[in-house]
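re: ur question from earlier - yeah i can do the single chain one, its not a big deal. heres the input i used so u can compare w yours
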Amino acid sequence: MKPVKVDKSKKWVGVCISPALIDQFEIDKAIVVVIDVLRATTTMCTAFDSGVRSMIPVLTKEEGFALQAQGYLCAGERNGEQVEGFDFGNSPFSFMAPELKGKDIVITTTNGTKAIQAAVARNAKEIVVGSFPNYSVLCEYLTKKNENIVLVCAGWKDKPNLEDTIFAGAVVRRLRPHFRTYEDTALIAETLFKAANRRKRYYLRSSSHFNRLFHKLQIQKDVKYALRRDTHPVIPKLYGEHLVEINSPYVAEFEEKAKAWKAARAAAKAAENSTSSNN
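and the output i got, formated as tokens:
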């Protein structure tokens, strides 16, 4: 049997099945799609479709509390449960209220925001978030951009999980006519998606995070909601420190803020390098 001929003129799409493996990918040469189906990126899509102005993904609870003290609303969870003292947890149903329209919300989660910050630290060309609710619009966007892509699955505490890998496989499947696959993880994800596609909830019934949310924490409605396709046709994109929906009227404002943030970050890095060389 002859190997499949690869068209190297096409851009590539890769699947990072855990943030622990992110250094295996050329993040600085790609658009990164962060995936946390249960539930961070599902919740982000819901929030932006409800009119939230921006979301600030942070790594720690302490960062969240510091920004909350400055007047920001703060959302987040640890191990699936709302952080005590935060305004919201991580349920998409918490972000459907009309009063949130135009608000800036800080968010920190066990896995999703950690994956976003991992991509930031590695100078990703662009960072967007994906989940079943924005599946079709995301795939259309990636096809039009025609850049190399890394689908980063948030997983669970650096371990791969089924739901994020299945979604990554769904994206690979849709992009296949326009991109070449990058390493076997993309093929693994696509194969998993094809096996699970018709009955995702049934297929996921034995997965660890599904059971953690569905049975232990009794938030079945969140799980069911997160697996519905194309309910929120939005694309949250990271501009500096802020996620903003790419078609919102706030993009120009946050593009300017991102320029200032990048300049400050570069200056801090230069100062750090200068100090190190002097020592």
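The chain has ten helices and eleven strands. not sure if urs matches, ping me
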